[in-house]
Design goal:
Elements: E1 2-5, H1 13-29, E2 37-43, H2 46-57, E3 65-69, E4 83-90, H3 92-102, H4 106-121, H5 129-145
Parallel strand pairs: 1-2, 2-4
Antiparallel strand pairs: 3-4
Helix pairs in contact: 1-4, 1-5, 3-4, 4-5
């Protein structure tokens, strides 16, 4: 899996390594070839994610992560060549606040937000109770596999 990280506001190498490991597991979980998948990850401040959240979701507040999928249906993903499945935007400051609220490490929160977003790029949602249950189970599976369980 090729993850293109923005250099600005990027977390430490240990977090990046866990994101890469987790991302590949997410892709494998869906039966895709991680060698052909590309995802871009941008780290922004609270002001920028607030603006993006308002612009793209109509929600006038800071959020932790936004996902911008390239495909509505995984069946549309080409089987050959490298394919960008979408973009992830993470607000590290919001992640730090949430980590404190949830009682776990900032590293775990950043990796979890990335995993959550990759599953959005792969077509998962959490608007309905059954969908949320399925998505959360997949997220926890990946987090457990990389040793970052709750």
């Amino acid at each position: 899996m090729n993850i293109i990280f923005s250099e600005e506001r990027m977390p430490g190498q240990a977090v990046v390594d866990k994101m890469i490991e987790a991302g590949e597991l997410c892709i494998l979980e869906e039966g895709l070839n991680p060698d052909s998948i590309v995802v871009s990850v941008t780290f922004v401040d609270e002001e920028e994610i607030h603006s993006l959240n308002k612009q793209y979701r109509g929600v006038d507040r800071v959020t932790d992560v936004l996902s911008f999928p390239q495909f509505d249906d995984l069946n549309d993903v080409p089987e050959e060549g490298e394919v960008c499945i979408g973009d992830v935007v993470i607000c590290p400051e919001q992640a730090l606040l949430q980590a404190d609220d949830f009682g776990h490490s900032p590293e775990r929160e950043l990796v979890y937000l990335f995993v959550h977003s990759v599953f959005h790029l792969l077509g998962y949602d959490h608007m309905e109770a059954d969908d949320k249950k399925e998505m959360r189970a997949k997220e926890e599976l990946i987090m457990n596999k990389i040793g970052m369980e709750r």
